[in-house]
Amino acid sequence: MRNTNQDVSTTIYRKDYVAPGFWVDTVEMGFDLDPKRTHVATRIKMRRNHDSSEKDLVLFGEDLKLHQLRINGVNLKKSAYTLTKERLVISNVPDDITLEIETSIAADKNTTMSGLYVSNGNFFTQCEAEGFRKITYFPDRPDVMATYTVMLRGDKKQYPVLLSNGNLIEQGDLGDGRHYAKWEDPFKKPSYLFALVAGKLVCQEENYKLKSGRKVLLQVWVEEGNLDKTQHAMDSLKNSIRWDEERFGLELDLDRFMIVATSDFNMGAMENKGLNIFNTKYVLANSRTATDIDYAGIESVVGHEYFHNWTGNRVTCRDWFQLSLKEGLTVFRDQEFSGDLVGNETGRAVKRIEDVRVLRQFQFPEDAGPMSHPVRPDSFVEINNFYTVTVYEKGSEVVRMYYTLLGHEGFRKGMDLYFQRHDGQAVTCDDFRAAMADANGRDLTQFERWYSQAGTPRVAVKAHYDAKAKTYTLNVQQSCPSTAGQENKQPFHIPFALGLLKADGSEFALQLAGAKVKDAPKSMVLELTDAEHTFTFTGIEQEPTPSLLRNFSAPVVLEFEYSDQQLAHLLAHDSDAFCRWEAGQRLAMRRLLKLVEAVQQGHVLELDAIFIEALRKTLNDKNLDPAFRELVLTLPSETMIAEEMTIADPISIHQARQFVRATLAQALKADLLEAYQNNLTPGKYKADAASAGKRALKNCALAYLVEWPDAATYALAHTQYQEAENMTDRMAALTAMLHCSTATDKAHQKTREQVLKHFYTEFKNEALVIDKWFTLQASAPTTDVVQMKSLMKHPAFSLSNPNRARSLLFVFCNANPARFHAVDGSGYALWADSVIALNKLNPQVAARLSRSLDRWTKYPVTNQALMKLALEKVAATKNLSKDVLEVVSKALAAS
Q: Which stretches make up the Peptidase M1 alanyl aminopeptidase C-terminal domain (predicted)?
């Protein structure tokens, strides 16, 4: 459908890339900070790029008031340039110029949180991807890199802290109640990495000694009252610095490194050079307010942004189509960092499984939906819409495949060559691939298809055992479904890891026919490069159980007809933790899909003994890490079940999944109670992996126990809530009480209401905890649209705060499918009204909420009709941002 109210914004294509007409060498900026009218003076030294086809000087600017424009000291008349809503174009300029610009900004009116904006009286910036153009007119593109010197001036009482990128070189009083601070960033950077912070902040700081012996200053800046929640972020920063030195030989290059937290932020965090700005969610933590998941998230995000200092800042993207060059690589690095910090193989495996679960739940559906795009997109309307799980998480899997193919040392050699060639440059995904190939003498030409082809490949495997010849043959075929604009896909270069298990659980040494290996391995990586391969293993004395796609060696869907007995065998014995967990997931998904069908047909629901006993064995196996046992016991989500169905039926899915939970609770009650008691963590709270794993299993057991209507188990949850010494256990108890199948039981309704009220009263001054309070209710299976509208009227709810909007609206639309997809369409109507309201405030956040209806054609016809009406209502809205318009237009085109 085409919107009749407005033209769809211009589509930008990767193939149309043109180098900038001018390079920038230095940027000097002066800010006189005032919320209503911040004055910005900018001096830019530029030189013509004779290799570019652009002859005019093209500057980008939005929502700015232009006061003065000079070239080489001469004021330009209005007739000398063209000024539009988004561009300033100057013709006939000399090859070498000093451009001086004076602009002003109404930062207090900027609700988009892009550019310079005010939050709780403090100034912040967010310039990625295209926010710098809201600060001054500039060639705001990532391939234009320069050094920056920044002078900040402001009222000393209102803005006692003045921060920018790089090193502080001068500060003092101005004598009129104002003061100044001058910052210099000695490293060239693109404008999207510019940052400014000013306001009333306090910091925790430490002097830190680098491996080279050089000392640096580390600071974590927060608002008054939050200093007691900064230690974990500081520890995570120090661990990140140490890890990057040891794993990749990369040292912090500035004299100081700063993290600043704000509650009003569109993203998780931003890697601005030396001045990272974070959402408070990924900085603030103590045991009273943060869960184990929060602690892990802070560690991961602090690591991610710090690692960007080299993979993103020192070497950046030539253009935004190359976004995964920095993001996919840095996600891989932060995943490896978190895995290494655990310190053991089981902990690394748990981390790997958690990452794969995210990929499957969010990225695989994106690959199959209207917003499907390659890791390196070919086009976009609004770049903010391409900060996606495909670019980040699938991009990370692409980097991990290099690691799998080249090995630990080979990957490090590739990274070293990458920095040797490209430090201080803006480059492409092809440049990274070339470094990996050249450093290892490998031909990775075909590997490029992971960047250029969208969709999730499918790998179909068929096996044949020849008892007489003692051979085991695998026929492996790869294919990839069509996606928008890409009907026919060429074969990918797929690393395919496998092992073969004997009946006793041990593993065969793997010897391929025709190949002689002195020490045959028990795990092997095959390289799939053709549409079809056949591999024959010799010396296989009994029919094995294949362990396929070990450690999830490629982001593909594996198709193999396992029997229940084979899956149970893998779950009990596989040495590869991922495949062991995967076997349990396959057992569960197989039953869940059959039960959904039984619900739809009105049949009696039953759960077989094989599955129950397989989970019982895992639950009681004390040789397994508690965190791993919790992962096995966690059923596939309702979203993942829906993706396995041709036509998704959210209500039937919910009923089937809840039936499995209740049945397991009844069958395993004694085992669950024992697991609960055996995994208590008395004493002072510790956020380490071992303690977190025990809490995870204990709270998983509690969630199951409450599924069975028993006053004693419900009382157990209530008691845990009342006596909890940490937020992890408190939240787990409250979640169990609100989300169980018996949550509609009137016998416990009063207790739930009392606990919810107590939780709010206890934490009403802790914004991040109140986000949890909203999330608990938005995701509860008892919460419908009527209750949602009531919660949106709560004094603590604000649509203008991204965290609050995500905690309520996003959770309801994306994590409560049975209620969101109500047959009367009320959920879709709420979605449409919320997207329209958010569009006026913050288009980026509105566009992300718009994605909730991406997969609308996957639902029953009656739901589709109501979803389409909601999409059309949003599409027809006047003054719709290009962020939202791109999403809903692509969704409607899917019909």
A: 564-893
The DSSP 8-state label assigned to residue 363 in this structure reads I
Counted domains in the chain: 1
Q: How far is the C-alpha of 700 from the C-alpha of 199, rounded, in Å? A: 43
pLDDT in tens, 28-78: 999 999 999 999 999 999 999 999 999 999 999 999 999 999 999 999 999
* Contact residues for 24 (Cβ-Cβ < 8 A; gap 6+): 44, 45, 46, 139, 144, 145, 146
Residue 64, domain extent: 21-199
Nearest to 697 by CA among 624, 800, 605, 801: 624
C-alpha–C-alpha distance, residues 10 and 19, integer Å:
19
Q: What is the pLDDT of residues 720-742, one digit of tens each?
A: 999 999 999 999 999 999 998 77
Task: Using DSSP, state whether 548 is helix, strand or coil.
Answer: strand
pLDDT of residue 4: 29
Residues 6+ apart with CB under 8 A from 657: 592, 635, 638, 641
The set of residues, in sequence order, having a beta carbon less than 8 Å from that of 261 and lying 6+ positions away, is 220, 221, 222, 223, 226, 278, 279, 280, 283, 284
Q: What is the mean pLDDT of residues 507-523?
A: 92
Helices (H) and strands (E) in the chain, counts: 29, 31
Pairwise CA distance, residues 443 & 331, whole Å: 25
> Residue 412 has which token pair?
């490090």
Tokens of residue 691, six digits = 């303690």
- The letter for the amino acid at 414 is G
CA distance 529 to 492: 6
N-to-C CA span, the chain:
9
What pLDDT does residue 849 have?
A: 98
CATH code for the domain of 176: 2.60.40.1730
Report if residue 681 sits inside a domain.
no
Judged by DSSP in three states, 381 sits in coil
Joined together, the tokens standing for residue 235 give: 């520890």
Question: Nearest CA to 644 among 364, 359, 457?
Answer: 364
Assigned domain for 649 exists:
no
- Number of neighbouring beta carbons within 10 Å of residue 712: 9
Rounded to two decimals, what is the model's pTM?
Answer: 0.98
Q: Enumerate the β-bridge partners of residue 39.
A: 32, 104
Catalytic center residues = 305
CB 498 within 8 A of CB 476: no
Q: Residue 663 falls within a domain, yes or no?
A: no
For 645-681, the pLDDT digits (tens) are: 999 999 999 999 999 999 999 999 999 999 999 999 9
**Residue 90 parent element (H or E):** strand 87-90
- Note the pLDDT of residue 194: 98
At 171, the amino acid letter reads Q
The answer as to whether 752 is a domain residue is: no
User: CA 271, CA 284: separation in Å to the nearest integer?
Assistant: 18
Residue 741 has a pLDDT of 78
Q: Percent of the chain scored above 70 by pLDDT?
A: 99
